[in-house]
Amino acid sequence: FPTRRSSDLNNAGFGFVAQMQPWMVHESQLTLEERLGTRPDADVAIIQVTAEQAAAASHPETFDPSDKWPECSSVFTRSENQGTCGSCWAFGATAALDSRLCIASGGEHTARLSRFTTSTCVANFITAGKDACGGGWPTWVWDYMSRGNAGGVPSEACLPYFGTGEGIDQIGRASCRERV
């Protein structure tokens, strides 16, 4: 991985502030790769788009969903914190679902789906009990929910994600239904 100083990232205008955290001091290449959130060994079909295909696609120069759906602006702009766990795949999938539910409900659904439930239950279901912090794919969450295995996902208020520190203290037992 190319090394970048946090000042380079902060000056790039990405919308976040990067800074060194104490847990990062002794991070190894192995644990860094685990925390990146995707699994290279996952059996997932990846659709690759060429630069030419991307350039030919019709899309606006800029797009701010808050302009189109102002009633969901707070959902679109929420900050997420997965701790040091490689569960970004679960966070990304549930953030997308939160946004879609808000849009579909005309702004009525503003709750945050439980990242704890989606990371632990989906990881246990898909990977036969492997650590959810070892990475995954957003499609796992959508597949799991579309098959009716979830029995619904509670809100974060009901079952919060409580990962902090080294990201190992949030893995536990959520109320997961087994596949029928």
Essential attributes:
180 residues; single chain; mainly alpha; 8 helices
Describe this structure in words.
With 180 residues, the chain is mostly helical. The chain contains eight helices and no strands. It starts with 5 loop residues before the first helix and ends in a 34-residue tail after the last helix.
Brief description of this entry?
The chain is an all-alpha fold and 180 residues long. It is built from 8 helices and no strands.
The value of Rg in angstroms is 18 Å
For the secondary structure, the number of strands is 0
**Number of helical stretches of at least 4 residues:** 8
Secondary-structure element series: HHHHHHHH
Nearest-integer average pLDDT: 75
Strand content: under 5%
Main sheet characteristics:
none
List the helices and strands and how they pair.
Layout: H1 6-11, H2 29-35, H3 51-56, H4 65-68, H5 73-76, H6 88-104, H7 115-126, H8 138-146
Helix pairs in contact: 6-7, 6-8
